[in-house]
Amino acid sequence: MFATRVISIAVAAALLFVGQAQAANTIPRAALIATDAVAACNPPNNGDHKVGSSCKFFSGPSDSSPVISGTCIDQSGTLTCVRS
After folding, report:
1. Where would a tag sit more exposed on the chain, N or C end, judged by fewer CB atoms within 10 A?
2. Quick check: bond before 44 cis, omega within 30?
3. Where is the signal peptide (predicted)?
4. HSE of 60 in the Cβ direction (CA atoms, 13 Å)?
5. Which residues contact 32 (CB under 8 A, 6 or more apart)?
6. Is 51 exposed, middle or buried (0-12, 13-18, 19+ CB in 10 A)?
């Protein structure tokens, strides 16, 4: 009975360590890049941005388009990312 419990605990500990090792090998998610200049500075993903915040968006219609880095400005009441 005691030996069975010790083995069960050892197996549980081994599984725990394997799970942690697998989690350590995962690749972190890449930062999301906005699809346009307005989305780069506004909700839902960038609701905490304000005038002067850094921002990025794709310059074309696909995620293989070059990325533009900029700064959020107030453009007629709408935060918009402009190249800095």
Report:
1. N
2. yes
3. 1-23
4. 5
5. 45
6. exposed
Reported as a pLDDT band with limits 50, 70 and 90, residue 82 is: very high
Give CA–CA dist 75/33, Å, rounded: 20
The structure's pTM equals: 0.61
Contact assessment for residue 73 and residue 30, using Cβ atoms and an 8 Å cutoff: no
- What is residue 6's predicted lDDT score, i.e. its pLDDT? 45
Residue recorded with tokens 């002067």? 52
DSSP 48: T
